[in-house]
Amino acid sequence: MKIKVIAFGYIADILGKDVLELEGISNTDMLKSKLYAKYPNLKRREYKIAVNQQIISEDISLDENSEVVLLPPFAGG
Amino acid sequence: MSSQKKKNKVFIEGAINPVFIADSIAKHSSKTGIGAHTIFLGQVRNDVIDGKTVQAIEYSAYNEMAEKEFHKIREDAFAKYELTCMHIYHSLGKVKAGEINMYVFVSSRHRNDAFSACREIIEQIKTNVPIWGKEILDDDTYVWKQNL
Question: Strand locations in chain A, DSSP E?
Fold first, then answer.
């Protein structure tokens, strides 16, 4: 299963792109480990994961329709 | 575009023009139940970071979620305070130092509700809305803005 991940701010800088497609991911914990393996710098940076525009606080399952977004700390205003 | 949708449009491309602000104040003269307006304007500051000066901030947002959050902030403010109307505008894209990047306009019968709501709305925008700012420095490098 393919998951599309969108990144903003400094997270996109670390990933080197705004959109990422990852295979074989079925929940957010798996997503995190895959990201940390690929981008070790990410582990030291603060960010949140939003799934379908809702910030998650625990592991949740994902499918190919999930809107997965990596959000660094907000800086509006 | 329906008028309802137009009314809720928060994001403005580039800086917010002071003439737009003046016009929006003028439009409220027909709402004669209003006794107090509070206006907050955010302006891009020329911070010095490691000896380099901020020339501009380039704003980006996760639009779909930002719109939801703005809507919630609006609903919460109307539920908690006695407000006649409120408007929130925030820039996207590049805004130069000295230009306006945020405009919050709250109107009420009396000053207390207008002041309290305005303050709360600004704090909620800073905390809850997925917006980021790339601070562009005078050597064309950048750093990501952090809210204190």
Answer: 2-7, 19-23, 48-51, 54-55, 68-71
Cβ-Cβ contacts under 8 Å, B63 against chain A: none
- For an interface test with A, give the residue of B12, B49, B65, B90 to mutate (most A CBs within 10 A): B65
Q: Does residue B5 form part of some domain?
A: no
Count: domains in chain B: 1
Model pTM? 0.93
Q: Which residues of A touch B132 (CB under 8 A)?
A: 8-9, 72, 74-76
Three-state DSSP state, A59: coil
- CATH of residue B131's domain is 3.90.1170.40
Q: Tens-of-pLDDT digits for all 148 residues of chain B?
A: 333 344 568 999 999 999 999 999 999 999 999 999 999 999 999 999 999 999 999 999 999 999 999 999 999 999 999 999 999 999 999 999 999 999 999 999 999 999 999 999 999 999 999 999 999 999 999 999 998 8
